[in-house]
């Protein structure tokens, strides 16, 4: 004589599971999505975003108090942000096909074949500027804007946190792991 | 299946196997490239961008809000907020690159797996089809249209090689299957039909499977051979589906109660408790069975007290704990009291009904024109679901006021007052109108009173001895706590929704 078969526990369970998922999703751990300096899909898609770039930026390490926020990548480049619990503004790391070094000061290169520059745009009241890694076919710009005080340590930690991964090594790794060629 | 594919992509062996298969398919498709078609494909890929999803999703939400289908609205909101977040999480975890070894010839954004544009489009279109299009041929046509759109978008995305085949397959599975499953569970068609006909939402369709089930249940439980089941006198009913049931031996009256009515009763009583405090017994029923049992019991109590009401014939179970029909005799040729000829005798009968309830220690609590029937010059009181035993004098006074107001819709208040003084003291009538407020007047009666040129409540107060108004608001710790909980819950829900709108791609 039953007309409708709708077991209540299932509906309730589903609603609870969905709600829990909704709440849980708000706090998804970002650790899984960090583009570490290891050959994987994250670095590969950054390499795809600037097909000419000989290097892609990556996270070499996350010093204490630092966290990775978000990677945004499209067919025109890639950006990710890092945050420190001692900085009120996030650091932005951007991969582009070209950049203008302007009056930036050359400093010790980050990697072989890379020209690295530092351009300080402000010393007082905040310490702000750009680190530029220029390499064949691309450029990585790291923009920071720190309060004075912890800024010296923060810039040092930032330089240690951001690495460069060679396209060549990435290509070899993808061929070995997935049997595919990154570039035509 | 979709989750298995996604899970496989998190292992090196799985990723290698799926990627090589994907690339082989994309390379085969690449062989079919033709310049004019490439341009078209790019246009389709661009059209499947996030803004399309946003427009579709917000349109569905706005339409649902406009047509006040809140169950569908909440289920849709849940899906629109949750599924994109789940997909975003999967994209982050899998972190898949775009296709390689083929030329990607359209714009792309973000990780490849699952395909966000395909998933979002499938989700929005599937929801729109299920919550906006009535079931039947229209929905079948809409489903075919959705399938065609999705096919076109998927074909364009594979043709331009912005997605892997496995990306779109998983997105389609999630974007179609999950809304179908969730909406079927949370808003089953039988209980929440998609319809645009005017009328009270409490009125359920009694055709199809439900109609068949009613026929079987009547035959099996009451031994009645049902020939026809039709909605009946829907105008005055908002808390059930009233039915005229024609049997081999004549017609009977039925009130179909379902879980939707139980839920309405709960919300109605919660709202009253928050707005006014516990005016009277506002405890909700905890099952449809209890609700229908209670009304059947009250009908018998009123009958035993000599109050003219519909004779109960029994309860028919359609679906255990979910749907029941309360069966009574049909009062022949009955019309709403305000639709019939209201003579002095009719006025006396109606007031006598109230007097008898007072004497028997009963209150009806829902006296209004549609619950006072007139048949062959005789007054009947029906719909006793809110009736109460041993109510407070205040509650009984409200019944008197509502009866007098109902009568005054057809005859002068002075006449009603004069006849009332034959059964009630002027003080009792004064108390009735001191207790009468908007909240104590049923919505139907309130609406009819507003249409009157004169203020009938004021007219009765002028006729009765002066009396200060009876306070309505009841402040208790329970009410304060409940109000705080409702507000906190609403704010938390709103904050959760707002916080997730951006993450879910709705902003």
Q: What topology does this entry show?
A:
The complex is a heterodimer of chains A (184) and B (507).
Chain A: H1 8-26, H2 41-49, E1 55-59, E2 66-74, E3 77-84, E4 91-96, E5 105-107, E6 115-122, E7 126-135, E8 138-147, H3 151-161, E9 162-166, H4 167-178
Antiparallel strand pairs in A: 1-9, 2-3, 3-4, 4-8, 5-6, 6-7, 7-8
Chain B: H1 2-8, H2 12-30, H3 35-47, H4 50-66, H5 70-94, H6 116-132, H7 137-159, H8 165-186, H9 208-222, E1 226-231, E2 241-247, E3 250-258, H10 259-276, H11 288-304, E4 312-319, E5 323-329, E6 335-336, H12 344-360, E7 362-363, E8 372-375, E9 378-381, E10 388-389, H13 393-408, H14 413-420, H15 426-435, H16 443-451, H17 456-463, H18 477-501
Antiparallel strand pairs in B: 1-2, 2-3, 3-5, 4-5, 6-8, 7-10, 8-9
Helix pairs in contact in B: 1-8, 3-7, 4-5, 4-6, 5-6, 5-8, 6-7, 6-8, 12-13, 12-14, 13-14, 13-15
Key descriptive features of the protein:
heterodimer; A: 184 residues; alpha+beta; two-stranded antiparallel sheet; 4 helices; globular; B: 507 residues; 5-stranded antiparallel sheet; 10 strands; 56% helix
**How many β-strand runs of chain A?**
9
- Helical segment tally of chain B? 18
Helix content of chain B: 55-70%
Distance between the termini of chain A: 66 Å
Largest sheet of chain B: 5 strands, antiparallel
Helix residue percentage of chain A:
25-40%
Helix-strand topology string of chain B: HHHHHHHHHEEEHHEEEHEEEEHHHHHH
Question: End-to-end distance of chain B, in Å?
Answer: 31 Å
Count all strands of chain B and give the number: 10
Structural class of chain B: alpha+beta
Anisotropy-based shape of chain B: elongated
Residue fraction in strands of chain A: 25-35%
Tell me what you see in this structure:
The complex is a heterodimer of chains A (184) and B (507). By secondary structure, chain A is an alpha+beta fold. Chain A has helices spanning 8-26, 41-49, 151-161, 167-178; strands spanning 55-59, 66-74, 77-84, 91-96, 105-107, 115-122, 126-135, 138-147, 162-166. Chain A contains four helices and nine strands. In chain A, strands 2-3-4-8-7-6-5 form a seven-stranded antiparallel beta sheet, covered by helices on one side. In chain A, strands 1-9 form a two-stranded antiparallel sheet. The longest helix of chain A is centred in the first third of the chain and has 19 residues, at 8-26. Chain A starts with 7 loop residues before the first helix and ends in a 6-residue tail after the last helix. Chain B has 507 residues and is an alpha+beta fold. Chain B has helices at residues 2-8, 12-30, 35-47, 50-66, 70-94, 116-132, 137-159, 165-186, 208-222, 259-276, 288-304, 344-360, 393-408, 413-420, 426-435, 443-451, 456-463, 477-501; strands at 226-231, 241-247, 250-258, 312-319, 323-329, 335-336, 362-363, 372-375, 378-381, 388-389. In chain B, the strands form three sheets. Chain B has a five-stranded antiparallel beta sheet with strand order 1-2-3-5-4, sandwiched between helices. The chains are: A alpha+beta (184), B alpha+beta (507). At the A-B interface, helix 1, helix 2, strand 2 and helix 4 of A face helix 2, helix 5, helix 8, helix 9 and strand 4 of B.
């Amino acid at each position: 004589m039953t007309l409708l078969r709708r077991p209540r526990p299932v509906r309730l369970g589903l609603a609870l599971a969905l709600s829990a998922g909704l709440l849980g999703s708000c706090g998804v751990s970002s650790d899984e999505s960090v583009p570490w300096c290891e050959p994987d899909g994250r670095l590969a898609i950054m390499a795809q975003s600037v097909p000419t770039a000989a290097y892609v930026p990556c996270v070499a390490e996350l010093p204490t108090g630092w966290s990775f926020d978000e990677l945004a990548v499209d067919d025109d480049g890639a950006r990710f942000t890092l945050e420190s619990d001692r900085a009120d503004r996030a650091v932005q790391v951007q991969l582009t096909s070209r950049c203008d070094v302007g009056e930036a000061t050359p400093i010790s290169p980050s990697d072989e074949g890379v020209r690295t520059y530092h351009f300080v745009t402000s010393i007082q009241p905040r310490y702000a500027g750009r680190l530029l890694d220029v390499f064949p076919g691309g450029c990585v710009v790291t923009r920071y804007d720190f309060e004075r005080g912890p800024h010296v340590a923060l810039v040092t930690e930032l330089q240690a946190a951001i690495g460069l991964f060679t396209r060549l090594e990435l290509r070899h790794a993808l061929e070995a792991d997935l049997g595919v060629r990154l570039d035509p | 299946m979709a989750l298995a594919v996604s899970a496989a992509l998190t292992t090196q062996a799985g990723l290698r196997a799926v990627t090589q298969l994907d690339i082989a398919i994309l390379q085969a498709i690449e062989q079919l490239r033709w310049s004019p078609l490439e341009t078209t494909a790019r246009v389709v890929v661009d059209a499947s961008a996030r803004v399309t999803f946003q427009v579709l999703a917000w349109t569905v939400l706005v339409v649902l809000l406009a047509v006040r289908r809140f169950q569908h609205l909440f289920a849709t909101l849940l899906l629109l907020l949750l599924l994109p977040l789940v997909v975003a999480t999967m994209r982050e975890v899998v972190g898949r690159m775009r296709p390689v070894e083929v030329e990607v010839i359209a714009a792309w954004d973000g990780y490849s797996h699952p395909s966000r544009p395909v998933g979002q489009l499938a989700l929005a279109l599937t929801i729109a089809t299920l919550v906006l299009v009535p079931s039947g041929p229209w929905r079948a046509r809409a489903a075919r249209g959705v399938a065609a759109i999705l096919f076109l978008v998927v074909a364009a995305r594979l043709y331009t090689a912005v997605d892997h085949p496995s990306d779109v397959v998983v997105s389609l599975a999630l974007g179609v299957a999950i809304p179908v499953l969730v909406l079927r569970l949370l808003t089953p068609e039988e209980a929440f039909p998609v319809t645009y006909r005017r009328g009270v939402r409490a009125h359920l369709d009694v055709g199809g499977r439900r109609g068949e089930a009613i026929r079987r249940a009547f035959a099996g439980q009451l031994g009645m051979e049902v020939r026809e089941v039709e909605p009946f006198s829907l105008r005055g009913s908002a808390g059930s589906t009233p039915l005229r049931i024609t049997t081999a031996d004549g017609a009977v009256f039925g009130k179909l109660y379902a879980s939707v009515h139980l839920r309405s009763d709960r919300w109605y009583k919660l709202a009253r408790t928050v707005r006014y405090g516990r005016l009277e017994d506002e405890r909700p029923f905890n099952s449809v069975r209890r609700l229908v049992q209670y009304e059947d019991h009250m009908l018998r109590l009123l009958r035993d007290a000599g109050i003219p009401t519909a004779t109960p014939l029994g309860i028919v179970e359609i679906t255990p704990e979910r749907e029941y029909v309360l069966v009574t005799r049909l009062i022949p040729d009955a019309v709403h009291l305000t639709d019939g000829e209201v003579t002095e005798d009719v006025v006396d009968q109606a007031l006598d009904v109230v007097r008898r309830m007072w004497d028997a220690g009963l209150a009806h609590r829902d006296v209004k024109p549609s619950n006072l029937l007139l048949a062959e010059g005789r007054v009947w009181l029906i719909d006793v679901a809110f009736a109460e035993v041993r109510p407070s004098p205040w509650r009984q006074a409200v019944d008197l006021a509502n009866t007098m107001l109902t009568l005054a819709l057809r005859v002068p208040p002075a006449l009603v007052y004069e006849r009332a003084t034959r059964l009630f003291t002027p003080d009792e009538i004064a108390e009735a109108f001191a207790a009468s407020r908007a909240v104590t007047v049923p919505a139907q009666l309130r609406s009819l009173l507003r249409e009157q040129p004169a203020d009938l409540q004021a007219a009765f107060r002028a006729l009765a001895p002066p009396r200060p108004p009876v306070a309505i608001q009841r402040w208790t710790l329970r009410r304060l706590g409940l109000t705080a909980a409702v507000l906190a819950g609403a704010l938390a829900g709103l904050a959760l929704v707002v916080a997730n709108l951006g993450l879910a791609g709705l902003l």
